[in-house]
Amino acid sequence: MDQQPEPLADRVSDAVALLVGKHTVRCPQPGCRVSVRYRAVTPDEAKRLTDLATDHTRH
Ligand SMILES: [Zn+2]
From the CA of 25, how far away is ligand 1's center (Å)? Predict the structure, then answer.
């Protein structure tokens, strides 16, 4: 979609991502590559996904 290689385009994409509530949550455990990406979800769903991504005992 957004294939413009300009740094400014990346910055704009980041800004848009913030505006639409797009997030990537990574597991804090060393060596664990689990991450959860979401956007435009309800606060409850965001919390659930964040918990899932950051609580290593649950995945
Ligand atoms: Zn993990």
Answer: 11
**What's the gap in Å between 43 CA and the centre of ligand 1?**
22
For ligand 1, a single-atom ion, which residues have Cβ within 5 Å?
27, 29, 32, 34, 56
φ, ψ dihedrals at 50, nearest 5°? -65, -45
What tens-digit pLDDT sequence spans the chain (59 residues)? Answer: 666 667 888 887 776 655 556 788 899 999 999 988 888 888 888 889 889 999 999 89
> pTM value?
0.56
Separation of alpha carbons 21 and 26, rounded Å: 16
